[in-house]
Amino acid sequence: MSLGFYFDQSRCTGCRVCQIACKDRQGLEVAGPIPRRVTTFESGTFPNARLYHLSVGCNHCDSPACVANCPTGAMYQDESGVVLHDDEVCIGCRTCVNSCPYGAPQYVEDQNLIVKCDSCKALRDGDLNPVCVDACMMRALDFGEVDDLVAKYGTDLVSELPALGTAETNPNIRIKAKEPASETSFKEVVL
């Protein structure tokens, strides 16, 4: 069983409500760490330039580099495969930050602490959704068993995009990608 996120890029408007809900839930009132990030990209050239958004938290990979490289075991996978972080065991070395190809673990300097998406484990334990899923007005996000997400949303989903990058970590994210997101020539834009 692998748990992960589904993201429908065709529905995302880039509003960043998922990002704000995640920061709020984690009590991150400082600038810097953003466990769920919405990034906007541009591809093509005039008159065929197009924008698309990418909403990414932790991909809860099957073979997470952050877990493999954590020297203390602070970064670990629970029995469901979700990647979690134990603040009590963390020494703030940032090896997980440097290991993750997706930028999921992030360092909060004033607390000497790592933060990351935990898929709202405490909420899920109470049979609730992650806050990003419920906050999304466009219903572009979902979370669950990856096989169930594929059965629900289709087999044309991808787990890698040029803007997301590729890694040998087997990310548990499934994306209904917009056509411009498959282009290898793109640049990040700030709206």
The largest pleated sheet is described as: 3 strands, mixed
- Give the strand order of the largest sheet, numbering strands 1, 2, ... along the chain: 8-1-9
Low-confidence residue ranges? none
Helix content: 10-25%
Rounded mean pLDDT is: 95
Question: Would you count the extended β strands for me?
Answer: 10
Note the overall shape.
globular
List SSEs in N-to-C order: EHEEHEEHEEHHEHEE
- C-alpha Rg, in Å? 16 Å
Strand content: 15-25%
Number of helices: 6
How far is the N terminus from the C terminus? Answer: 38 Å
The structural class is alpha+beta
Topology:
Blueprint (H helix, E strand, L loop, with lengths): L2 E6 L8 H9 L11 E7 L6 E7 L8 H5 L5 E3 L5 E3 L9 H5 L6 E3 L4 E3 L5 H5 L5 H5 L5 E5 H8 L19 E4 L9 E4 L2
Parallel strand pairs: 1-9
Antiparallel strand pairs: 1-8, 2-3, 2-10, 4-5, 6-7
Describe it for me?
With 191 residues, the chain is an alpha+beta fold. 19% of the residues lie in helices and 24% in strands. The longest helix is centred in the first third of the chain and has 9 residues, at 17-25. The protein is globular, with a radius of gyration of 16 Å.
